[in-house]
Design a protein that fits this description.
Strand content: 35-45%
Radius of gyration: 20 Å
Structural class: mainly beta
Oligomer: single chain
Largest sheet: 3 strands, antiparallel
């Protein structure tokens, strides 16, 4: 079987018929969200970030100071939110605009 025998599927977004593998690649690319820090660096799972300003953590009664290192972030699929672990605070979610990649 050659590559010309590939199944074609209808792409409702563009109104065109295209190879199934091409449509799958297009959909995978569309679901990828780029998360950028305060200075425009691209963030990825496992990155370390530093806070660029003091942040009061609601519900924890604690303030994280500017310069605090957050290790091993996790992307949430939202362009501005990152999931973080910090001792003493469960379920910490920070906005990417308040961090800088280390």
């Amino acid at each position: 079987m050659s590559s010309t025998d590939e199944d074609y599927v209808y792409d409702e977004e563009s109104g065109d018929w295209m190879p199934a593998s091409e449509l799958a690649a297009k959909q995978a690319g569309a679901s990828t969200v780029e998360v950028r820090d305060a200075v425009g660096n691209l963030l990825a799972d496992g990155d370390q970030v530093t806070l660029i300003k003091d942040l009061t953590v609601r519900g924890a009664g604690q303030t994280l100071k500017q310069g605090t290192l957050i290790k091993s972030i996790r992307l949430t699929g939202d362009a501005q939110e990152i999931d973080c672990k910090y001792p003493g605070i469960k379920g910490l979610v920070l906005r990417a605009e308040f961090v800088k990649k280390r």
